[in-house]
Amino acid sequence: MKQLFEEIPFTSHAIGDKMHVYNRIKRGKNFSNCLIPSREILYPQEVTDLLKKHSNVIIKPLSGKQGIDVIHIQKDSGQYRVVRNDREQLISKEDVHSLVTDVTKEHTFLVQPFIQSQTQNGSAYDFRLHTQKDGAPA
After folding, report:
1. CB-CB contact of 81 with 73 (8 Å)
2. What is the rounded CA–CA span in Å between residue 61 and residue 122?
3. Which of 55, 57, 67 is nearest to 126 (CA)?
4. Among 44, 50, 59, 105, which one is most buried in terms of CB atoms within 10 A?
5. Measuring CA to CA, which residue among 21, 52, 15 is closest to residue 36?
6. Angle CA(88)–CA(89)–CA(91) in degrees, nearest 5?
7. Per DSSP, what are the bridge partners of residue 87?
C-alpha cells in the first residue's frame, strides 16, 4: 500500500480499520442496531471479561487480513477452547491472558461476541460493507 501511495495519485482516502468503521456506523445511528458489539483490546482482561458475559468470542486484527490471525475462543468446562489457524486446543484462563498479550504485542486486535452464521451446508456466512462515493465504487 505504501508503495502504491508513492507511485499512484490517490484521489480519496481509505475508510479506516475495523474499529474506525464500527465507530463511524455507531455514531451515524441509522445502522448502529445492526453492529456486533466490538472493542479494541487494550488489556487481556477485556477478553476474559467478555468471555464471562458471552462464553464465546472472536479476536480479529483491526486491519483486514481476509480471516488470517482470527482467533475463536469458547469457554469449555472451566477451560477455553481456542481455534487459531485451523488448530484447536484447550487452554487455561492464564493461557488466554498470555495468548492475548502475545498477539497484541505487534498488532492491534478487537474482540467481539461470536455470532454463529452459516449456510445450510455449514459454510461460514457473513455480510460485508461496500462503500461508494458519488455513485461510483470507492
Report:
1. yes
2. 24
3. 67
4. 59
5. 21
6. 145
7. 84
6-32 pLDDT tens trace: 777 665 556 778 888 889 889 988 888
Q: What element of type H or E holds 124?
A: none
User: Closest Cα to residue 18, out of 61, 79, 68?
Assistant: 61
Which DSSP string corresponds to 19-75? HHHHHHHHHH-TTGGGSPP-EE-SSHHHHHHHHHHHSEEEEEESS--TTTT-EEEEE
Residue type, 71: I
- 72's CB contacts (< 8 A; 6+ apart) are 56, 57, 58, 59, 82, 83, 84, 114
Rounded Cα gap, residues 33 and 29, in angstroms: 8
